[in-house]
Amino acid sequence: MKALQVTRNARPSEALRIVEIERPEPGPGQVRVRVSAASLNFNDIDRCRGRVTTVPMPPPFVLGMDVCGVVDAAGAGGEAWVGKRVVAVTLMARGGLAEYALAPLDSVFDAPPELDDCEAAAFVIPYHTAHLALFERAALREGESLLVHAGASGLGTAAIQLGRSCGARVFATAGGPHKTGLCTQLGAELSIDHTALDFAQVVLDRTRDVGADVVCDLVGGRFVEPSWRCIARGGRYLAVGFADDAANGTTGRALRPACTGNFSIVGVMAAYMSQVPSAIRRMGLNPFGRDVGERTHRELMRLVARGEIKPVIGRRIALEEAAAALEDHEQRRTSGRSVVDLSAR
User: What's the pTM?
Assistant: First the structure.
C-alpha cells in the first residue's frame, strides 16, 4: 500500500517520501481502517523535525494522526466495527497518511453522517480536543468570555464554534485580516490581529479590566505571558498547544503570575484509554477514559446534526502535496484544516 513515511528528521519536504509498504494487520483491541481522508496536524511537523513530542518515535514511520474511512478488518473485540464508516485517531497517533491504518478501539467513533469524508477527518481531533478543553476541563458557561488563540486554525475554528454554541462571548486572535475575518465569520465578537495589536490590552479594554474567563491557548510560547495578564480573577488558562514553542511546552516558566492573578492553569490532552497501563501512568500520562470520549462524541454529533458546528477545511490535497502543505502550515500560510483526500484510488 502507499504511505507517507518520515524517512529522516528534517523539514517536511526533506523528511517525507511516499513509499510502498505492507498493509498492517490489526491485533486484539484494534481495527484496520481503509482510509478515505486524513488530516494534517502541527504535531506532524514536530515529528518530521524530531522535536520533543508526547510519543517520540525515530524514523522511519508513517505520519498521520486522524482519519476517516471504513473499517475493513478487526482484531479480537473489534468485530462489530467491520463495515462501518468511522473517524479515528490512529494507533500511537501515527500511520494515518496511508491507504490503510490501524486504530485502537478506544479511539474509534462513528463518522458524522452529515459530513463528507474530508470534513469528518477534520472533525475528530479538533472538536474532541476543543470540547474536552472548554467543557470537561474549564467548565465554560453561558455568558462567560472565552479567548481563543490561533482562532483561524483547525482547532481554533472548532473552539470558536463550540464557545458560541454554549452562549459564551468569544474573542479570538489570529494573524492578519484574512484570518481575523474568518474568526468573525464563525461568530467571534472580537477578532484581534496579534501581528498588529497587543491582544492583552484589547481584551482588557473590551472587558473593562475584568479579563477573559477562559483562555484557550493553542500557541504557547510568547502568547503565555500576555494571556496571563488578561485573564479574569478565577479564570482558567487552558494549555492546549505549543505551536510557538520550539521545545514543545517542555521549557520552564515562572508560576508566580498564577498566584498574583488568582487564576488556574489547566492542562488538556485529547486521548482515550479504558485502562491506563501502570508504565504509561508513571510516565505522567493520564488520559481520559473511553466513557468520556463517548459522551463527548454524542454531544458533538448532536451539534453537527443541528448545524451548530462544522469543520473548516482550508485545503483538500493529494498525498503528494502533503509535505508542501505542512511547510505552509509551519509558516502560518494556512487556515482551517488541511486534509489529504485518499478516496480516489
Answer: 0.96
